[in-house]
Amino acid sequence: MLKVEIWRGTEEGRYETYEVPSQPSQTVLDLVTFVQRKLDPSLAYRFACRVGVCGSCAMTVNDTPRWTCRTHVQKVVERGRVRIAPLRNLPIVKDLATDMVPFFDKGQEAKGRFIPSDAAATSVAEISPEDPKRKEADAAIECIGCAVCYAACDVVSWRPEYLGPAALNRAWTLVSDARDSDRIGHLQAVADDAGCHACHGHQNCVEHCPVGINPTRSISGLKRLVLMAAVRGRL
Hints:
By secondary structure, the chain is of the alpha+beta class. It has two domains: 2-98, Beta-grasp domain (Ubiquitin-like (UB roll), Roll), CATH 3.10.20; 101-231, Fumarate Reductase Iron-sulfur Protein, Chain B, domain 2, CATH 1.10.1060.10. It is 35% helix and 14% strand. It contains ten helices and seven strands. Helix 3 (101-109) runs parallel beside helix 7, helix 7 runs antiparallel to helix 8 (183-190) and helix 7 packs across helix 10. The longest helix has 17 residues, at 215-231.
């Protein structure tokens, strides 16, 4: 049997301990699901695909943000115990479910939406795979918005207004996209005090990103472009 400590309640909650049978190839999401289905149906948590595609099952496991569907118990169990909590830096709705609105709002603040260069165009613009800017965008474009990097970011903990690694990474993909028509607009959105220059470069986002994106590199690229645009009087 495993001792599974799960956060219950909201910000003022507590950990409750459950005994769950240990199984081969068991994931942390399997533990949570067992508790909800067999021991306490009032437990609230979020999941969807269960195969590492949607990112909605992200939680804090032994103080580390992870996708619980891809985290095998045998890799994180400590002396027969596993502690599971909601993602850090987000309001708790109940138990393991967090309110993702602040995270998605940061994407809007960073102007993380594509602005087409020709709204009336009838054909898709062709960009060579060898184009340097295309390669920059490709390296950062696989983010699925799971908020693991946001939960891992110390700067977000210190400064809740900071846009965060995911929003800034998205902005980098847009300024690197030759088809986007508002490069300066994207840079303006990330140039203020809570934008790219607030990043301390700790690389917690890099260490914990489940799909191997390097937001710190993207943010560094934004810092360079913002500086160049400011020197040229465009910001």
